[in-house]
Design brief:
alpha/beta; six-stranded parallel β-sheet; 9 helices; globular; disordered N terminus
């Protein structure tokens, strides 16, 4: 009997899950921890909606570093200092309630040349929300950001990366493009900084949108991971840009 390799087994498992649950069901399994995000191949769940972006296929070596869920009273400041050290610009997808709590950090992000975008008011899973709730989460988060900086967000990152046709339609109605990611560092699950850096260094490609978090419970591995991987990525010729700049490619 022919033995099935681990790679073949993983592919068969994904196919069975995909057929059983569909695209959004797969993301639900990821969100609940039943499947690890690293086990999914982004190409297997390509989006047909024109307002959804995962990466920007590019001949150049431009990549976008993004941070979710902040600002955080400690880690956002640390990350801003590290980015300044290497002269790197990033995009922060902020939670409205956190922005309201730490408005000075939103100002610092923008003053340093970073991009600030919408990650909802309270980290609600929008696929499970009503149309009215979706609009409230987006509009109220933007209102808080605008009250701090008079800044208009144009990108939405739905919590968990979960979305459906309703959300893409509402996002389009409100003038938003949905921005997901092509490389998940899984820093939220507290791997070691060395593992985070090693995975990014192995998998990164020009045009990637990299997902990290500046708000993580407990001891965040993200600042140390950045200290390891950023100088190596710069040495390899990668250019860090904001999501807006990446989409100009």
């Amino acid at each position: 009997m022919k033995k099935i390799t681990l790679t073949e087994a993983a592919g068969i498992t994904f196919l069975l899950v995909f057929l059983s649950f569909g695209v959004y069901g797969v993301f639900d399994l990821v969100n609940t921890g039943s499947i690890k995000p690293a086990e999914l191949t982004v190409a297997a769940v390509e989006d047909s909606e024109s307002c959804v972006v995962r990466r920007v296929p590019a001949a150049s070596e431009k990549i976008a570093l993004t941070f979710d869920d902040g600002p955080h009273e400690r880690y956002t400041e640390e990350i801003l200092d590290i980015l300044a050290k290497y002269d790197i610009k990033a995009t922060f997808f902020v939670i409205g309630t956190n922005a309201d709590t730490y408005p000075e950090l939103i100002r610092k992000e923008l003053e340093a040349g970073h991009e600030v975008e919408n990650h909802t008011l309270s980290h609600v899973y929008l696929k499970k929300a009503t149309d009215v709730e979706i609009k409230e989460e987006m509009v109220e988060s933007q209102s808080i950001i605008a009250s701090i900086t008079d800044y208009k967000t144009k990108f939405l990152r739905p919590p968990g990366g979960l979305y459906d046709g309703r959300l893409t339609s509402i996002a389009n109605e409100l003038g938003y493009k949905i921005v997901l990611w092509s490389l998940d560092t899984c820093d939220w699950s507290h791997p070691t900084p060395e593992n985070i850096a090693a995975n990014v260094l192995e998998d990164v490609r020009g045009g990637d949108i990299i997902l990290m978090h500046d708000y993580i419970g407990g001891n965040s591995p993200t600042p140390m991971a950045l200290e390891i991987m950023l100088p190596r990525l710069v040495e390899r010729g990668f250019e860090f840009v904001t999501v807006s700049e990446l989409l100009e490619e």
